[in-house]
Amino acid sequence: MTRLDVCRRFVASVRHSTELGIEVLEAHEDRVRTRMAASPQLVGNPDSGIMHGGAIFALMDQAGGLANACLIFPSFEITPTIDMRVDHLRAPAPGKAVICDAECYRLSQHVAFVRMSVYEEGDEEGEMLATGLATYMRMKLPGASKVVA
Amino acid sequence: MTDGLRDLVAACRQGSEPYQALIDRVPYAAFLGIEITARGEELTFVLPKRDTNLGNPTLPALHGGAVAGFMEQAAIIFLLLEMGEPRVPKTIDFTMDYLRAGHFRDTFAECRVTRLGRRVANVHISAWQVRRPEPIAIARAHFLLSEESATEPPE
Fold first, then answer.
1. Which residue in chain B has the smallest CA separation from A78?
2. Count of H helices and E strands in chain A?
3. Residue B150 has pLDDT above 80, yes or no
C-alpha cells in the first residue's frame, strides 16, 4: 500500500470530507496535494457565488491530517487538530476548484506542526488564495490503522 | 443595482422575515444544516447532529472543519443581523482552538464582537455541546466590512 492509498482511504472514511468532495491528488513523504471542486452547495456568498471560507478551512484541516499520515507512513495515527489559523489572502474565482498543499514540517513526540497553502486549480505556481498553520495531537490509539486497512 | 442579500438582511432586522430565511439563502450554511434561534436580541446558532458532518470514524466525532465552518458562518450572520452590516463580510483570518472532542450531537455557538472598527471587525466565537461554560472550540476572526452602513438607502 502506498502513501496515496492510505490518504485516499483515510479521506474515504471521513464522511464530511467526502461530502465536501475532497480528493487526494499526490502524496509524498514531505507533502500532500488535495483538491476540492467548486460546487453550488459550498457557496458562501449567494450574490457573488464565491466559495465559503469555512469549506476551505475544512479542506486545509483535512490536508494537514493527511500530511501527518504521509510523514509517519507506513505507520498510521489519529491526529486531532489542536489549533489552526487560516489567512484568506484573496477569494477564489467563482466556479474554480481549489488545491491545498500541506506539509508537516516538524513532528515531535506528541505534536505535529503543519503548514498549508491553497491555490486555484491551474495556478498552483501562482498566487496563493490562503495560507494555514496548524498543530495536531498524535493520539496513540491502538488499532488506529484499521481506518485505512 | 439591488443587492439581494441586503434587502433580506434589512427585512430580517425589521422582523418582516425570519432570521432563518437569511441562513437558507447561503448554500454552505444550508449544506451544514445551520439553524438560528433568537431570544430577544440574543442569537444562538445551532449545528444540528447530522451524519454528513461527521469526521473521525473511530470516535465518532464531528469534523473539525464542519465545526469551524459553522462558527465562521455564525460570525458572518451575527455581523449581518446584529451589527447591520449590509454586505457579506469577508473573512480576513480565522483562528480556531479545539478544546474538546466534538461529539455526535447538537452543537451551539454564540458570537461576541470584541472590536468593531470602521473597516475591520474582531469577533470571538464560542461553541459548546453540553454546557456553555464548557466550550468544545473557541475561535477568533477578523472580517473586512463594507464601507456603507445598513441605514443608507439602496441606490
1. B56
2. 3, 8
3. no
